[in-house]
Fold this protein.
Amino acid sequence: MNYNQNNKIAQITSQTLIIGVDIAKFKHVARAQDFRGLEFGKPLHFENTKDSFDVFVEWIREIQGQQDIDKVIVGVEPTGHYWLNLAHYLKELNLKLVVVNPMHVKKTKELDDNSPTKNDVKDAKVIAQLVKDGRYAEPNIPEGVYADLRIARKIRDLLSVDLQVVQGQIHNWIDRYFPEFLTVFKDWEGQSALQILKLNLLPHELVQLPDQEILTHLRKAVKRAVDISRIIELKKAASVSIGIREGSDLAKLELSTLLE
């Protein structure tokens, strides 16, 4: 047992009401006990709603009054994101919330009945016991600008993943329908290459387009002068392309969708 766990155990006194909550998507289960493991009352089943949260807090206050206990610590197993609503609610009421490791819950509940089987009521008891033994962590629940930063980071991570997926799909499209494209443009994400792709033409269609029309289209996005020889080289590659022609209409729809 390390010093940090000793310090956590020291916070659990005879004046501490320990609440273990098994979190689910729609309905939670809570059980209450003291520092010895002596349980108070029956398990409380409450929903993931404001009214039910109020009932949960009233239940806690009632037990506090009956047992003459002034401190409360609520332990939860962080199941996905479902515990966050309750965590913010309790924080507003200055009720301390801690989290326990799901692996610890799985291992510890075998001690009671020699079974690791999932059971909401049993899990709530195990969570409370883990809190009693100091096997918990205090989560960092950001507020104000820090909450904004966390959300912004999540959005950025999601967009980065989405962008990588789309980039791979566009590269896949080029390999299927115009593999010679990358012999002319080394980087399809360059301004000139992207502008060519936005023409939304397959190689056999690109060949039919006049050089000057392609050049005019390029200059809409590329400010510096575009060498006509690059266009000639591209059309030459397109004329001998082994790109797939079947399903051309939807192939072009796929490309325009990905680029958008």
Observations:
- Strands lie at 16-22, 27-33, 39-47, 71-76, 96-99.
